[in-house]
Amino acid sequence: MNNYEIPKNILENLGIGELNQMQIDAFHTIQESADTQLIAPTGSGKTLAFLLPIFNLMKQDVAGVQCLVITPSRELAIQIEHVWRKMSTGFKVNTCYGGHSTKVEIQNFAQSPAILIGTPGRIADHIHRRSIDLRNVQYLVLDEFDKSLSMGFEEDMTYILDTMRNLDKRVLVSATNLTSLPAFVAFKKHKTLDFSNKEVNTNDAFQLKSVEAELHNRKNTLLQLISALETESTLIFCNLRETAEQISQFLKDKGLEVDYFHGKLDQLEREKTLIKFRNGSSTYLVATDLAARGLDIPLVKNVIHYELPHHHEEFINRNGRTARMNASGTAFILLNSDENSPHYLTDTPEEFKLPKKTTMPNPSLWTTVYVSGGKKDKLSKMDIVGFFAKVGQLTKEDIGLIEVMDFMTFVAVKKDKAENLLHLVKEQKMKGKKYKINLAW
Description:
Elements: H1 8-14, H2 21-32, E1 35-39, H3 46-57, E2 67-70, H4 74-87, E3 93-96, H5 102-108, E4 115-118, H6 120-129, E5 139-142, H7 145-150, H8 154-162, E6 169-174, E7 190-194, E8 206-212, H9 218-228, E9 234-237, H10 241-253, E10 258-261, H11 267-279, E11 284-287, E12 302-305, H12 312-319, E13 329-335, E14 350-351, E15 366-371, H13 381-390, E16 399-404, E17 409-414, H14 415-425, E18 429-430, E19 433-434, E20 437-439
Parallel strand pairs: 1-6, 1-7, 2-4, 2-5, 3-4, 5-6, 8-13, 8-14, 9-11, 9-12, 10-11, 12-13
Antiparallel strand pairs: 15-17, 15-20, 16-17, 18-19
């Protein structure tokens, strides 16, 4: 394959018509340069910016891991894996991270992946166990590198890189420009692509608006705004975990389908929350800035700043959760006239006038169904669709997002069809085996 030819079939698999300028520049630079530093804000498509050139460089006849992607969070690792699988490259991918079964990961390594994605601690653990050999890895990606450093992963990353003797290319990806790079990165002659001053949402698809909200009535103003937006996927940002939980409970008490997301949740709770939000079973997610970067939630229609962050970078990252890849979206800021605006908010955005009368948004059309089998049981999305259609009497329109994990699967199903589906499949076998199938939560 010509290294300068963007693989159109991969873009078709992803449902993308064309790349943005940052992705085009990265596609060529990563292939041409020994090392590359890519700096771009959240929502600009950095994942695809490094995966496409890496795919172009990989070879079918090379055994073992060709590319290692190190990322600070399990959610981001899973997101990158999802993008790679959607690309349908033909190259095997594995993901490893804390909270995932180490035994399963070691079993996966029996047939070495071509690309390995993981968090620093878990990758270091596998190297120590000698369950994976990374000595011949040619391509290294340090994704969200600034965040990895701030989370204290420098020691693990140093250990990992010390074992890698045959690197041809290093790609360092971050949302902010680091004033200096740690010695362990060991950049040779590198090229920097800096898009940090080019905000993600500079096109007409993105709008920024303000909403007047007095402190004593802030929660009710939020409810009015949500009601005015009708039933649209909405991410609501708060600065503190406690606030996120309180706002979530307030909205839930009003009858809305809402969850909260922050760093104190365990891995299962995080995955459950994100699955529900992705597939539309819950329409609203109240979160801290943990959700501003590196989460696989691509179809967020609205972002609401219930509280404004302290720093401009966090503000940009939050806004980057909507209007991704040129889809339309709006970010709303709740402003109190008696408060001092943050230094980065030099101009007050256009005011969004709340209607005098609003009605509560319609409930979601979807619920989530759990299946007690997954990839390790040789179940695929097509197996699920076929079984639910033939035995459960569902149409394609009745089935939404399907997420197949190692030992379980979650399927979005129209609420009004779920009860009959569960009744019809209760005693039936799928691919010769009986699985537990019920409402997930």
